[in-house]
Amino acid sequence: MTEVLVLYYSVGGSVRRMAELIADGVERVPGAAARLRTVPRVSTGIGASAPAIPESGPPYCELGDLEECAGLALGSPTRFGNMAAPLKHFLDGTSLLWQSGALAGKPACLFTSTASLHGGQEATLLSMMLPLFHHGMLVLGIPYTHPELNSTRAGGTPYGPSHFAGIGDDLPISDDERALCVAQGRRLAEISVRLSSPSSGE
Description:
The protein is an alpha/beta fold. The protein has seven helices and six strands, in the order E-H-E-H-E-H-H-E-H-E-H-E-H. Helix content is about 35%, strand content about 15%.
């Protein structure tokens, strides 16, 4: 079974729901399985402020999860056009994987949610790509062969799935946003399975 890591940070629940949809898309691909993981909050002193084990939901991600995965979906709410500090804090601790090249050649994709429709969705997705490029990962977007990219009136970008959650983080994920999340999960899983098969030469 080819495991795809769906790693996210969520506060109000929108990014978590997107992660679950992407995981659903992953598991629609024969031979692929999704591994959901999150990261703890950080304090103003930048140290982790959450308990070692989450009270509910997926476990916290460890470096081994990244090393073992065949592909990565990375999700965060927008913070001034960038990923949230807890996810950045986790990625800043992956230098050992960078030194060993453990993630080089693995496919990856990004997803995000914003409180306002023009609240930095594309800037966040683009900025989240940077550490993945440094790791040598193969970053995937969503092609315009998916009609939802043209029909959406909420989130959805060629750089990755996005969601317009509203100021109260209470807007449901639209049908178009949902379809793009599932499509991205499927695309990531299909490529992960293909690259990890013995016949691929990888």
